[in-house]
Amino acid sequence: MEKRRLSFWQIWNMSFGFLGIQMGFALQNANASRILQIFGADVHELSWFWIIAPLMGLIVQPIIGYYSDKTWGRFGRRKPYFLVGAILASIGLVLMPQADIFIAFLPALWVGAGMLMIMDASFNIAMEPFRALVGDNLRTDQRTLGFSVQTALIGFGAVIGSWLPYVLTNLFGVSNEAAGGTVPLNLILSFIIGAVILIVSILVTVATTKEYSPEELASFEDEKAHSEVIIKDGEKEKSSLLDIFDDFKKMPATMRQLSWVQFFSWFGLFGMWVFATPAIAQHTYGLLHTDSSSPMYQDAGDWVGILFGVYNLVSAFYAFTLPYIAKKIGRKKTHALSLVIGGLGLLSIYIMPDKNWLIISMIGVGIAWASILAMPYAILAGSISPKKMGVYMGIFNFFIVIPQIINALIGGPLVKYAYNNHAIFALLMSGISFLIAAALVSKVKDVDDIIQS
Questions:
Q1: Fewer CB near the terminus (10 Å): N or C of the chain?
Q2: Going by C-beta distance under 8 Å and a sequence separation of 6 or more, which residues neighbour residue 265?
Q3: Where, by residue number, does the polypeptide cross the bilayer (predicted)?
Q4: Do 390 and 283 form a contact (C-beta atoms < 8 A)?
Q5: Distance between CA atoms of 59 and 56, rounded to whole angstroms?
C-alpha cells in the first residue's frame, strides 16, 4: 500500500497551525531584544538572554520527538503535542511584554527572560511534531511541496507578527511610546493578538487533519513501524528515552552532512535576530548604543518589525517556487543558491544609504529563509526511516540550536570588545555564515532527489 495523495488544501490545512506558531515566533524575534532593553538589558547582554531559546530547543525537541513517535490515542499522535505547546506559548506571549506587573516579586527583566523561556519551550513543543507530521502523512513525491507550504504559512504568519506593532501605531493610532522601563501599548496589544491567533490556527489543523493509524503505517512499511519494543537477539527489549543517544550515534550520513549546513545557517540567523534592532538603530538611525527609550529608538524597533515582515513575506511566496526550482536544478543547488543570495543581502545592510533601502537587503534574506525552512527537511526526510521520523527530526534540531548557543555565548562579547559596541558587524558576520553554509551544501548527498529535465 501507498500513502494517499493529498490535495493542496489538505496539505495547507495540515500545516495551518504554523501560521500562528510563526506569528508568535516573529513577535518574539522582532521585539524580544527591544523589550529586554526596555527592562534594562545592555546591548552586549542580549545574546546571553537569548541563549534561553536554543537551550529550550536542545532539551525539548528530541524528547518531544521521541514521545510523539510513540503516542497513539484518541486525539492522534502529533496533534496533542502542538495543541499543548500552543496553549503554553500563548501564556508566555501575553505575559512577556507585561512583565513589569510582577515587579513586586521579581525585577521585570528577570520575569521577561522567564516568559521568553516559557515561549521558547512551548514553541518547540509545538513545532517539532508539525515537521514530523509532514513526514508521516506525505508521500516522497509530495514532501518538497509539503515543507514548502509549511514554509509559506510560516512566512505569512511571520509577516503578520512582524508588522503588527507598526500597523497598530500607524494605521490605528495605538501609541508606541511609554515611560522608561515600560513596554509601549502597541507591543502589548500585538502580543495578545498573537496569542489568540496562535490558538485558533492550531485548532484548525487539529480539526481538519487525519493522522494515519499504527496499522496503516505498518502496512506502508511492511513491518510494525511504531512498536513499543525492539527485537534484539530474539528477545524483546523495552525502548526508552535513552535510545535518543543511540539514534544520535547511528544518524544517517545525509543528516551528518546537513548538520554543517545547518550550523552556519542558524549561526547567521541567530545573530540577525538578536542584533538587528540595535544594529539598525545605531548604523541607520545614528543612535548611541546606550539609547533604548527615545522615540527614535522605538521607531527603529518598529521599522525592524517591518523589515522582518518583508523577509518573511518574500519567503512565503518564494516557498511556492521551491518545488519547481528543485525539480529543474535539484534540491542541493536550490538551497546553495538561496543561501548565497541571503548572505549577500545581509552584507549589503552595511552600505545601504537609508532605512528604505534595507528592504532590498531583506528580500535576499527572505529567499534564504524560505530555503532554510524547507530544503534541509525535504532532503532529510528521504534519508531516515519513518519509524524514527519524530526522534530524528528532534535530533536534527541539535544542529539548529547548538550554533545559536555558541553565538549566544560569544556574540555579546564580540559586539562589546571586538566591534566596540557596533552591532552592525554582528549582521555582517551573519552574512558570512550564510555564504559558508552555501559552500557546504555541495558535500551533502540527497538520496531521493527528483530532478526533471
A1: C
A2: 339, 368, 372, 433, 434, 437
A3: 48-68, 80-96, 102-123, 144-167, 187-207, 258-280, 300-322, 334-351, 357-379, 391-410, 422-441
A4: no
A5: 5
pTM above 0.85, yes or no: no
- Cα of first residue to Cα of last residue in the chain, in angstroms, is 29
Per-residue pLDDT tens digits for 358-389: 999 999 999 999 999 888 888 887 666 666 66
CA gap 49, 259 in Å, rounded: 25
* Amino acid residing at 143: R
What is the Rg, in whole angstroms, of the alpha carbon atoms belonging to the chain? 21
Residue 231 phi, psi dihedral angles, 5° rounding:
-85, 120
Angle CA 59–226–86, to nearest 5? 40
Three cell numbers written together for 43: 546591548
- 269 has a pLDDT exceeding 90: yes
Q: How far apart are CA 209 and CA 215, in angstroms?
A: 18
CA 264: distance to chain centroid?
15
Q: For cell 534540531, what's the residue?
A: 397
Looking at residue 453, its pLDDT comes to 42
- Looking at every residue in the chain, the average pLDDT score rounds to 82
Pick from 66, 2, 47: nearest CA to 419 = 47
CA distances for 55 relative to 87, 116, 269, 394, 451, angstroms: 20, 12, 16, 13, 37
Whether pLDDT at 240 is above 50: yes
> Cα–Cα distance between 182 and 197 in angstroms, integer?
25
In which band, very low, low, confident or very high, does the pLDDT at 232 lie, cut at 50, 70 and 90? very low
For cell 535539484, the residue is: 330
SS (H, E, C) the chain: CCCCCCCHHHHHHHHCHHHHHHHHHHHHHHHHHHHHHHCCCCHHHHHHHHCHHHHHHHHHHHHHHHHHHCCCECCECCHHHHHHHHHHHHHHHHHHHHHHHHCCCCCHHHHHHHHHHHHHHHHHHHHHHHHHHHHHHCCHHHHHHHHHHHHHHHHHHHHHHHHHHHHHHHCCCCCCCCCCCCCCHHHHHHHHHHHHHHHHHHHHHHHHCCCCCHHHHHHHHCCCCCCCEEEECCEEEECCCCHHHHHHHCCCHHHHHHHHHHHHHHHHHHHHHHHHHHHHHHHCCCCCCCCCCCHHHHHHHHHHHHHHHHHHHHHHHHHHHHHHHHHHHCHHHHHHHHHHHHHHHHHHHHHCCCHHHHHHHHHHHHHHHHHHHHHHHHHHHCCCCHHHHHHHHHHHCHHHHHHHHHHHHHHHHHHHHHCCCCCHHHHHHHHHHHHHHHHHHHHCCCCCCCCCC
Those residues whose C-beta lies under 8 Å from the C-beta of residue 320, and which sit 6 or more positions away, are 148, 152
Are 50 and 187 contacting, i.e. CB atoms less than 8 angstroms apart?
no
